[in-house]
């Protein structure tokens, strides 16, 4: 039986400004990438999401990002290694404390936004994130973009890596994500997204934005939690996979 994990970026609300429907999404996904307060999220809101994840048995990951609340962590930055290592350790440590209070534990790390895209190919910043993870807890899993150089870089450094694909994002023919500045970068139709992910799980292939087919291997599928149709998309993906005999289970469950 085919098997995969379904994850989403959660905990991104800030004070009175809501972002996504975290509670509903937690009833769909297996793993939750929870914002650590640098690109989004505040402690009270993060704690609420962690408590809800704990109730539902959803695996928790620290969603670390650049220190960029105004830009939602989607602006390219070039921190020094000392800054980036310290920032990542700080975010994971804060998430570990909140998770403990919520009755759960941090099981993995996923970078957010611009940091995610940068470390996929930038060996120096990737090494900084890897060093930070190993410094605070080398048993943490790194979730990274399928096909990107960071996958082998992190494995060579001794980390366990889970490769992921994005259900609601368009891909370039080289396996990179289409820039959000370009039209068609985000796919909003639940039925289209579900069909793409079912094909990916079955065949290991996805259609790039230029119409060519590319091969991708993944142990986890991400649905962004901040898009208007996020929950509908996640449910459509889940229903399509389960309805076709695919087992949905967190990669942390063995």
TrEMBL record:
Lineage, top ranks: Bacteria, Pseudomonadati, Pseudomonadota, Alphaproteobacteria, Hyphomicrobiales
Family: Belongs to the LamB/PxpA family.
GO molecular function terms attached to this record: 5-oxoprolinase (ATP-hydrolyzing) activity; ATP binding
Keyword field: ATP-binding, Hydrolase, Nucleotide-binding
Top enzyme category: hydrolase
The UniProt record lists the keyword ATP-binding: yes
Task of the protein: Catalyzes the cleavage of 5-oxoproline to form L-glutamate coupled to the hydrolysis of ATP to ADP and inorganic phosphate.
Protein name, as recorded: 5-oxoprolinase subunit A
Subunit note: Forms a complex composed of PxpA, PxpB and PxpC.
Database matches in InterPro entries: Glyco_hydro/deAcase_b/a-brl, LamB/YcsF/PxpA-like
Biological processes, Gene Ontology terms: carbohydrate metabolic process
EC number: 3.5.2.9
One Pfam family from the record: LamB_YcsF
NCBIfam families to which the protein is assigned, alphabetical: PRK05406.1-3 (NF003814), PRK05406.1-5 (NF003816)
Superkingdom, taxonomy of origin: Bacteria
Reaction catalyzed: 5-oxo-L-proline + ATP + 2 H2O = L-glutamate + ADP + phosphate + H(+)
């Amino acid at each position: 039986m085919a098997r995969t994990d379904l994850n989403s970026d959660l905990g991104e609300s800030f004070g009175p400004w809501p972002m996504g429907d975290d509670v509903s999404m937690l009833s769909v996904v297996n793993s939750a990438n929870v914002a650590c307060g640098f690109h989004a999220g505040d402690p009270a809101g993060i704690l609420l999401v962690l408590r809800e994840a704990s109730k539902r048995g959803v695996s928790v990951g620290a969603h670390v990002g650049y220190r960029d609340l105004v830009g939602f962590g989607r602006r390219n930055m070039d921190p020094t290694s000392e800054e980036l290592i310290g920032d990542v350790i700080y975010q994971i440590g804060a998430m570990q404390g909140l998770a403990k209070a919520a009755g759960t534990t941090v099981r993995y790390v996923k970078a957010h936004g611009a940091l995610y895209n940068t470390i996929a190919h930038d060996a120096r910043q990737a090494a900084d994130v890897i060093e930070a993870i190993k410094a605070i807890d080398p048993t943490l899993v790194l979730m990274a973009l399928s096909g990107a150089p960071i996958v082998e870089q992190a494995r060579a450094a001794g980390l366990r890596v889970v490769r992921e694909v994005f259900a609601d994002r368009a891909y370039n023919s080289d396996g990179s994500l289409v820039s959000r500045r370009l039209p068609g970068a985000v796919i909003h139709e639940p039925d289209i997204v579900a069909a793409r992910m079912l094909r990916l799980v079955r065949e290991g292939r996805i259609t790039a934005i230029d119409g060519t087919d590319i091969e991708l291997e993944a142990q986890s599928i991400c649905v962004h939690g901040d898009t208007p149709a996020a929950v509908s998309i996640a449910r459509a993906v889940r229903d399509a996979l389960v309805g076709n005999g695919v087992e949905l289970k967190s990669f942390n469950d063995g």
